[in-house]
Amino acid sequence: MKLFYAPGACSLGPHIIVREAGLDNVTLVKVTFGKERPTEDGRNFYDINPQGAVPALELDDGQVLTEAQVLLQFLAAQKPEAKLAPTEGMARWRLLETLNFISTELHKGTSPLFKNPAPEAAEAVKANLVNRYKLLEQKLGDKDYLLGEFSIADAYAYVVLNWARRFEVSVSPKLNDYFARIRSRPAVQKTLQEEGLPIS
Ligand SMILES: N[C@@H](CCC(=O)N[C@@H](CS)C(=O)NCC(=O)O)C(=O)O
Asked: What residue owns the CA closest to ligand 1's atom 9?
């Protein structure tokens, strides 16, 4: 399988799960963003995902899966024994609830900041995010990870918290500690190194 990624983009979440699960059958393929989107393996990324967005996972039979939430679940399902995504009971529904919250409120809530908005617009986006991060903190509660044990939800949360740092969105000390806890995991360190991102 090939996971198409751009350094530091939302594809970082699935990349973390590839390393957490030890999925050696997944090859990482970098996409360069610009007017054109060439891939590291010499293709036009629009031919792989017409939306032009990472992450995209090309399966061995040529099918392409997209959408970060779905890729996280698909990758976790390749190695159930790694227990990265609860599949039973209420924990399953809490996982889906959390992934959807991160995707629609935090991931897409941050997206406008990548488009260099006017300062007033940027402040409005950030004010909304501050409120949404308070909700994430409530979901975390006193646990080390969102569902208790590390899961795909934490890999996704790492991505958006990394953006919060980049765009100077204020988050609580508790969320900063949570971010550092995820970052210190060996698989996450390896992932960051592979994408050429800061490891501290
Ligand atoms: N709905 C997609 C959106 C993915 C997405 O927003 N990808 C961004 C990077 S984080 C991207 O590739 N943007 C480039 C573009 O849309 O042109 C998902 O949830 O995976």
From this structure: 9
The span from the CA of 4 to the CA of 107, in Å, is: 18
Among protein residues, the one whose CA lies closest to atom 1 of ligand 1 = 67
Q: What is the pLDDT of residue 4?
A: 98
Residues 2-82+190-195, CATH architecture: 3-Layer(aba) Sandwich (3.40)
- Of 39, 37, 33, 47, the C-alpha closest to 2 is 39
Nearest to 191 by CA among 167, 149, 161, 155: 155
Cα of 131 to ligand 1 centre, how many Å?
A: 23
**Model confidence pLDDT, tens digit, residues 121-175:** 999 999 999 999 999 999 999 999 999 999 999 999 999 999 999 999 999 999 9
